[in-house]
Prior knowledge:
Blueprint: E1 2-6, H1 9-26, E2 31-34, H2 41-52, E3 62-65, E4 67-69, H3 80-87, E5 99-100, H4 109-122, E6 128-131, E7 153-156, H5 159-165, E8 178-181, H6 184-188, E9 192-197, H7 203-211, E10 229-234, H8 239-242
Parallel strand pairs: 1-10, 2-3, 2-6, 3-5, 6-9, 9-10
Antiparallel strand pairs: 4-8, 7-8
Helix pairs in contact: 1-2
Amino acid sequence: MKIYQADSYVSMCRKAANIISAQVILYPRSVLGLATGSTPLGIYRQLIDWYKKGDLDFAEVTTFNLDEYAGMSSDHPQSYRSFMNENLFDQININRARINFPDGTAEHIQAECSRYDDLIRSKGDIDMQLLGLGHNGHIGFNEPGIAFEKETHYVQLSESTRQANAQFFTDGESVPDYAFTMGIKAIMQAKKILLAVSGSSKATILKRALTGPVLPEVPGSILQLHPDLTVVADSEALSDLLKK
């Protein structure tokens, strides 16, 4: 495990973007696992900036996003595909045929989960998986208590997760109750994992995830067992870990 401390959210995003850009530059046909939410936004802005300056080329990159809301079409403005289009894909030269998401409108849940897992395996698994960390320790939408051996699955979102995501919905819109998410087993099969964490509200759960017992009640704790985990966090998020 490698831990890099940043002075601020902006610095954290730059450090994380540096790691992703190095992966893409050295291996142009990289398979990247991507995350949504507020934490990665600054990372994506930095990658876009470097692309526009001619420093990055995403033409041969393949991406797999961690999750998608159930019952939501890909063109819905609150879908995770729309989020990624707006905040990354529409502003870089990625081949649209290389972008992958679970299908939130799939009628046959297990068949869709199997399709996504098979597609990831067909690409040789993920080279680098970007993750955030939920306030309850979730990674992807793998909520506390979900078995570590799960692959892509259909999950009911916790109330704390729905509240955290409410910021992306307009007044009168409710956060969906269910989602498709890449499972912990699939995440752990990524060759490299990059965990980006920001803010004092994540300090306690980050310390539990990185130093506490490995338990399904703290899904992120499984990352301790990954052979190539890099953590990039700002000083506030690392404050509990830095206490003597």
